[in-house]
Automatic annotation (TrEMBL):
Transmembrane portions of the chain: 6-32, 44-63, 75-95, 115-136, 142-172, 193-215, 221-244
Keywords assigned by UniProt, alphabetized: Membrane, Transmembrane, Transmembrane helix
Name the UniProt record assigns to this protein: THH1/TOM1/TOM3 domain-containing protein
Amino acid sequence: MDENSSFVAYLFFDASVLLVLGVFALIRLIISLFHDHSKYFSQICFRILVSCTTIAYLILILVFHFMQNQSGKDIIQVLVILFSNGMCLSFFYSILEFDSICREFTFKPCKRNTVFLVIIFMILITGLCQLCSYFIRTNASPYVFFFINSISLFVQMEYILGYGCFHIGMIIRDLASNDESDFFVCPMKIIKGTIIVLIIVGIFVFCSFVASFCVSLDQSFFYQLFSGLCGRFPMIIIIFYSLFFQEIMDKIMKYMMQVNPPHVNGLI
């Protein structure tokens, strides 16, 4: 198998992983809409945007390798950026809304909520950087987008998943302090293990990003290699773990509804 065939195989492996994640998000969305009583707005919005992101990314992969349609590629790339940033925002919103429902307080986004405002600002900045760098039309434009997109995805991955994991862990700890059962022991262990995994993944992606400065991206081998390590890989990690965290929140929500039915304010 030659070099190009190897990278095409890796690309299709990434596409297959995205397809599985997208189908899973779509199935969970359907279940939430029609069979789940513990649904809330941002949870549904998040799964819709995950499905849209994975579908757009899959189309981008197919367009990039099988069609010479630059206009179509530009449109799909913009959709990927918009959907992925919307997915990140809705995931944060989902955590904050989940917190408000479990602890029975009213969550008002953008109203004296510093955390939410910082989240919006961070996602807007990274999203705008991705969009602007993509449409820089110079001889170095592919590399400008590569570096800006890579650092944006790295920041989003560490900030979104790191903060999300920390916030969910704090919620679980507070809920467990008022619960006499062992239900929250397993979720807390999962969160602690996930923090370790995210640290390792973060170090790996950061080292890959730094290593990309030490090679010539003019060579197809290095460009394709680091496009996967610094581009598709962080995106897959963001989608996978955000879906994973959403599942944990759903399990906790169902448990809270069983042991304490009044915890339903804010549910659809």
